[in-house]
């Protein structure tokens, strides 16, 4: 107890900051989710769990949740495979490696909204360069191109591609950092024992990357689950709820329908889902344990 | 033990990242007053890149005449405007004067001054009566009509001539002409039909009301009606017979109008500012402006008026607000503002002053036939967002009846 008091001046600011920017918003979110809030933002009293019942009872709720799972699994999976390959490449010495390493950072440095808008405009019929290219090489036979972002399936697929693109740099660098810690002797020993390159990678290098990979996956899961801007831009003009994830649905409740109470309720659900996934992941994979 | 501390750390990370989305809010600074006069907070949307400058000029002129009143200007994009105002109200920091669309919700929550308490009688009498009626909730006017717009059919004369098509006045003629233009090929679309989320409610009004339907009144929102069904069915016919551009259901209005300006769309419904857009982007375009075709050829237009409204807050700024409104609506200040943004004035003196403007003439002509969204119905917000989210499904396998029923359901659930 005395120790705690002595430490307080040092940890006090940090604790206050966490309380102000993490605990308070979370508390407010939980509070709002049990209130009836009018469209102009006035609190009209408590309604218990009615907001949750409305949100879960919405006829598109389960498809949206399912789509969110697909979104997370596909994006994180593809990002991981791509990053493992890229990191292995960047770990080899070759002329111009420094430039390539810099180039990999670019999608990370650029604004996500900007990157997505570039692709979105490229996919526009009539003037998008991706559409123009596909028309010119004869893959699309309507002269104005195909409305990629006008159909739920194709728009969602392109959104996934963009999400993988912007997730690659961080994941690649995390794994690259992991690769640098793999001791050269272990690889050398495998060579001497006559293991092939593939065998060496899967049996010697990859197991030692466990820490780096599992941390990268964990952070990616949280990030991708909570990703809004890419889907917002790519699928924003599509009518109905056939391309929505939990995050875009929260946004629709909040921005379009101005139902802050329902948006909060869905946020709470999303929050619990993420906490659940993370808790399971931490138990099963133990990402922060030493190998 | 160490393991649990790590778990805690990870949960903290998760906590921090997951709350990012909902935690935004509680912003809003209300600058400090200089001197001991009154300070008015003004929250307005951005109509164009010029909006901020126009307001700055108005405020400079006003502050010169009223040295004891300071005006704080906050300009937001239309996309953010409604969440900003909701956040401010929730935080007890409502602006004194607000420029926005629907306001019935605020009136219902008793946040607004009835406008006759914050404006002089002469200024009040100068508004077009139809616009004032449209700004009433339960017989009391809560919004001052600010700027108006009307819709009309923009026709690409060159394309119609090439296709040998006539300018349509009825739906059947429109279908025929649009199909002829579409058959020109090369990516040309006969009729530009934007049912995407950007402004689906406007295209819906053009068709459903043009067939004799309506969205209801101040008491009740009625979407799923036989009259409305006719318009919705005809939209499906237009799409199915290839009279429109591809993917009408997810096409937004602004990008589609860009295509019209490029000369690839035969006909599309446009707004007064569309004239200026064509003028600056493609002055070569051969086009003309006509009344919107309806089922039986009766003229009609969709009128939209945005409003200025005054929040009561502590109730101590009534005089300052009155001074501001009277200054702003004087013809010398108001008309140049409206004109610079390319919209139509809502005052009688303003209309007189603009009567000789050639570009605005087609719109001023149809203004008397204007019908309005039922914005004074507190459920209109829900209807508006239901149209944005669901109306585009007409372009697809769902029947017109089902789409209207789904919109009605979402409105009724509020």
Query: In angstroms, what separates the terminal alpha carbons of chain B?
Result: 49 Å
The fraction of residues assigned to DSSP E strands of chain B is 5-15%
* Uncertain stretches of chain B: 10-35
CATH T-level topology of chain A: MetI-like fold
Number of domains of chain B: 2
Largest sheet of chain B: 6 strands, mixed
| Side-by-side strand order of the widest sheet of chain A | 1-2
Basic shape of chain B = globular
Q: What Rg of chain A, in angstroms, do the CA atoms define?
A: 23 Å
Largest interface: A-B, 62 and 63 residues
Distance between the termini of chain A: 35 Å
Number of domains of chain A: 1
Question: Total number of β-strand segments of chain A?
Answer: 2
**Topology pattern of chain A, helix = H, strand = E:** HEEHHHHHHHHHHHH
CATH topology tier name of the largest domain in chain B:
D-Maltodextrin-Binding Protein, domain 2
Q: Which structural class is indicated by helix and strand composition of chain A?
A: mainly alpha
- Please count the beta strands of chain B (DSSP E, at least 2 residues each): 12
Rounded average pLDDT of chain B: 86
